[in-house]
Amino acid sequence: MQELNQVIAAYGAAWRETEPNKRLELLNQCFAETAHYVDPTAEVSGRNQLSDHIGAVLKDTRGRVELTSAPASHHDVVHFTWHMVAPDGSIMVAGHDFIRLDIDGKIAHLAGFFGDPVSLN
To answer: Which residues does the UniProt record annotate as the domain SnoaL-like (predicted)?
Structure first.
């Protein structure tokens, strides 16, 4: 089983890697072969589709993703926060990712959310 911090670090690094082969190499370390990824703008399956999605986002935004929290986990579920930084240093979007790990400790399903939930007050 992979160390959780290594899995999350590789995933975060994939969101900063503009070279497709290097990005796919990072995803091979952390993302299960048939894993599923969803966020408000995308739904993809497998490492190749996720690598392509990340590449398109990085090209379109010219931003970079930084993890902003340590992963919190219990059982096979993980939660962490991140933000995307624009080339000028401003924060473009922040969000939360929720992950389910497979038996090998790799990401089997990731659901990403942009921003914080709206307060009920």
So the answer is: 21-109
